Each structure stands twice: as structure tokens, then as C-alpha cells.
Amino acid sequence: LCPGMEGAGVVEKVGEGVTEVGVGDRVAYAAPPPPGAYADSRNIPAQYLVKLPDAISYAQGAAMMLQGMTVEYLIRRTYPVKAGETVLVHAAAGGVGLIQCQWLDHLGVTVIGTVGSAEKAALAKAHGCQHTINYRSENWVAQVKELTGGEGVDMVVDTVGEASWGDSLRSLRRSGRLVTCGATTGGHPSADIQRLFS
Fold first, then answer.
1. Whether the Cβ atoms of residue 168 and residue 178 lie closer than 8 Å to each other
2. Which end of the chain is more exposed for a tag (fewer CB within 10 A), N or C?
3. Residue among 194, 157, 163, 191 at smallest CA distance from 177
4. Where are the alpha helices (DSSP H) in the chain?
5. What is the pLDDT of residues 157-186, one digit of tens each?
6. 39: phi > 0 → left, psi -120 to 50 → alpha, else beta; which?
7. How many Å apart are CA 79 and CA 177, to the nearest integer?
8. What's CA 113's distance to the chain center, in Å?
């Protein structure tokens, strides 16, 4: 996502009083100042390091850090999603989307994801997305309403922006939440508060 901001490796030395990690630990990190992930070695405060299980490669660990932090912020802090709720995830087969689908599924949330192809639908489903909608060939608002018995979803996580903004609003249940965290199709339109009344 951000050149020089994410990395992974093995701890070679630790400073006095450091207990979070030890020499030989496999770790990954994201965004400790200053950038420099392309270096052969770095001095990084232990608070920025996350231990990697053996099953996760250095490449995977480095690649998931900012995306994983984004998902944590969206579904645990922006709005703490609860079991039994339904969430619409745009770009469900993307980096943020795949982590989000897995995490939401683990929490007992029904996940509906928009995707752009059959291949992406299969990928999203393999990662916890129970329902996929191809936004290129299907009316995804109508599909969301059908899947939710006409109610709409508890939350939409919109990484798309301008192209999906209005339809994301129409996909919400009464008092649902629209969380926007990206604008791949352009910025969001100026807020028209009248649109929220409907």
C-alpha cells in the first residue's frame, strides 16, 4: 500500500527492558516513522512489531499489516460489529475485503460482498463471504434488499467512493451505518443531508 512502510524480518537484537519480542522472533510491522522498509536492517521500537506465526511467510506478514490495521479500525473501533448483524463489503476480493470477510465471518456476521467477476466471487466466498454480488451484471441494491428480506444491512463498508455512494446509502437498514474508507472511483459527492432522510 505505502512504499517503504510495511516490512517483516527476524529480530537480531533487543534493547534493555524489551520483553514483547526476543532475538530470533519472526516479526512484521507497518508504518513506524520514518519510512525505510527497503533497508536490510532497521532499528524499530518493539511497540510496532507483531510476531508472525510460522504458517505466515514474511511476504504475507508484510503485505497484510496496513490492510489488517484498516480492517481492525473499521469493524472494531469505527463500529464494533456484533454477531448476527449483516455487513455489505465492497471490493470483497481485494486486500482489505478478504481480511474483512474472514474477520466478520469469524465474528458470526453475515457478509455480503460486491465483486467484479466470477473468479473474484469464488475468492471472496473462500474467505468467509457468504453472499457475493457481481456489481457489473447485477443490481446489487436489489440483491442486498432481497438477501435481507427488504430490511437492508446493518453496515456498509465502502472503499469505492463516488460510484457507489448513493447505492450504499440505499442498501442500509433504518439507522444503519455507512463507513467510507476509500475512493477508488473518485471522491465522495458533497454531503446532501436531504438524501439521508429517505
1. yes
2. C
3. 157
4. 58-72, 95-106, 118-126, 140-147, 165-170, 193-197
5. 887 656 667 788 889 999 899 888 765 555
6. beta
7. 8
8. 12
Can you give the pLDDT at residue 6?
86
Give the HSE-up count for residue 164: Cα atoms under 13 Å, Cβ half-sphere: 28
Q: What percent of the chain has pLDDT over 70?
A: 86
- To the nearest 10 degrees (0 to 180), the angle between helices 58-72 and 95-106 is 70
User: How many CB atoms sit inside 10 A of residue 111's CB?
Assistant: 27
Nearest to 51 by CA among 69, 12, 74, 24: 24
Rg of the chain over Cα atoms, rounded to whole angstroms, equals 19
- Look up residue 82 and give its three cell numbers: 456484533
- C-alpha cell of residue 142: 436489489
- What residues form DSSP beta bridges with 153? 172
Whole-prediction pTM: 0.81
Residue 95 CB contacts under 8 Å (≥ 6 apart), including other chains: 1, 63, 64, 67
| CB neighbourhood size of 127 (10 A) | 19
